[in-house]
């Protein structure tokens, strides 16, 4: 029994070693022995208009589209958008300051405008359509 066990350990050990040393690609087959492609194409990633460029507005008083990612966090403690777009920081951050309509009469930020992405949406070019559509004409 002891010998059998050590042989088994040896074989296992060798297989493990062999597996590690293996550098060539491994062929993967499904249970039905069909070829399985192991190379997956990359997910579509959104690309945003080049940095520092505003997107032309299509109608008057349109909330301008965001030409960059919109995933900056907005919490009760901190507004990720205001770190660049507040009247105090905008020039330094090379960003446009919030519109005057977003301010109180004394120039302080009006918190009614706190949740920026309620009105402003990011514009991105995607490689693929995000959602399919079979709308018939
Ligand atoms: C790291 C700095 C930074 C942060 C954070 C940031 N932005 Fe920007 N944003 C910019 C820059 C730079 C531009 C391009 C210059 C411009 O048009 O203001 C820009 C452009 C914009 C524009 C277009 C302005 C226009 O006149 O067309 C909007 C709208 C905008 N951002 C909204 C947001 C919102 C909403 C958030 C939070 C989700 C946010 N930004 C976070 C730097 C930032
Ligand atoms: C209730 C909707 C609303 C909310 C909320 C809002 N905005 Fe706006 N924003 C607008 C509209 C509408 C305009 C365009 C104003 C105009 O042209 O009359 C604008 C304009 C802007 C501009 C362009 C200013 C310029 O001089 O060209 C920036 C930058 C901006 N908003 C950033 C922000 C940020 C950052 C927040 C959050 C802190 C925010 N906005 C919240 C509606 C909103």
TrEMBL record:
Q: Does the keyword Metal-binding apply?
A: yes
User: Which keywords, in A-to-Z order, does the entry hold?
Assistant: Electron transport, Heme, Iron, Metal-binding, Periplasm, Signal, Transport
The molecular function terms in GO held by this entry are: metal ion binding
The family this protein is said to belong to: Belongs to the NapB family.
Q: Its GO biological process terms?
A: anaerobic respiration
The protein's name: Periplasmic nitrate reductase, electron transfer subunit
Any single GO CC term annotated in Swiss-Prot or TrEMBL for this entry: periplasmic space
The question of whether Metal-binding is a record keyword is answered with yes
Q: What is its main location?
A: periplasm
């Amino acid at each position: 029994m002891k010998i059998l066990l050590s042989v088994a350990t040896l074989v296992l050990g060798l297989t493990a070693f062999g597996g590690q040393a293996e550098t060539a690609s491994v062929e993967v087959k499904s249970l039905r022995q069909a070829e399985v492609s192991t190379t997956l194409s990359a997910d579509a990633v959104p690309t945003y208009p080049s940095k520092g460029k505003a997107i032309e507005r299509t109608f008057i008083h349109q909330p301008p589209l965001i030409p960059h990612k919109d995933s900056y966090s907005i919490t009760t403690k901190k507004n990720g958008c205001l770190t660049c777009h507040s009247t105090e920081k905008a020039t330094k951050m090379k960003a446009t300051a919030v519109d005057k309509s977003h301010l109180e009469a004394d120039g302080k930020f009006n918190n009614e405008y706190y949740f920026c992405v309620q009105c402003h949406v990011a514009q991105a070019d995607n490689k693929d359509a995000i959602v399919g559509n079979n709308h018939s004409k």
